[in-house]
Amino acid sequence: MKTTMMKTAAMILTVGLFAGCATNNGLKEEVANAQAAADAAMKAAKEAQLDAATAQGTADAALKAANTAKDAAEACSERCGRMSEKAMAK
């Protein structure tokens, strides 16, 4: 997201530097183009943020499932150990 903002800022700075040499109509067109690029970058950044939030939710659910499976495996291992001890004691 920082890279996109930096590119947009660089584009706007470039437009500003050329503003002294451009005609008024040309400057308006360049500003409009820069604004359109900035709007597109912002939209892409928001979509990326949404995708990241979705991925984080999926990762959290996977971690919860893994912890549940680990707890179940540990409980099963304890039961098997107790059963083995009882069988050996007989």
UniProtKB/TrEMBL annotation:
Keywords: Coiled coil, Signal. Residues 24-51 form a coiled coil. Pfam families: Alanine_zipper. InterPro entries: Oprl. Residues 1-21 form the signal peptide. It comes from the Bacteria. This is Gamma-glutamyltranspeptidase.
